[in-house]
Design goal:
- Helices cover 25% and strands 39% of the residues.
- The model has no long low-confidence stretch (mean pLDDT 97).
- By secondary structure, it is of the alpha+beta class.
- The chain has a single domain, classed as Jelly Rolls (Sandwich).
- A hairpin with a 2-residue loop joins strand 5 and strand 6 (106-107).
């Protein structure tokens, strides 16, 4: 089964999409399998991360922004704004795909794990995530 999700983002940073994915898994009718997520963009990524303490999310965002700053004089890809090339680098350093097993219609995430869409641009609008359940 494949489902296309449109995820609205309002800012750069980590956006918890665990609830969106949980809804798809529970409604799919499969008892167990693998949920694979793929984001169809080169300036956003997916990851599994701490979902209990927001300071972990904030620290990750700050750390990656420090590692890959905007307006680096080495960038030549600048037509789409100062956040675009850093977003491509951040996407290359992270991942566009994650997989999580499920059983009894529930994701088998750890106690403090959540699934996040990491928006690397100062972008607002929709990002497309493909959910494949098998």
């Amino acid at each position: 089964m494949i489902k296309h999700l449109s995820i609205e983002v309002r800012s750069q940073g980590l956006h918890d999409i665990t609830g969106d994915i949980t809804t798809v898994v529970s409604a799919c009718g499969l008892k167990e399998g693998l949920c694979t997520l793929f984001i169809r963009h080169t300036s956003a990524s997916l990851l599994i991360q701490e979902n209990y303490d927001d300071s972990a999310r904030v620290d990750l965002e700050h750390w990656l922004n420090r590692l890959v700053p905007e307006n680096d004089p080495l960038y030549t890809h600048t037509l789409e704004g100062p956040d675009d090339m850093p977003a491509h680098i951040k996407c290359a350093l992270t991942s566009t795909q994650v997989s999580v097993p499920f059983q009894a219609g529930k994701l088998l995430l750890g106690t403090w794990q959540g699934i996040y869409l990491w928006e690397h641009r100062r972008h607002t609008g929709a990002r497309e995530v493909i959910v494949h359940l098998a």
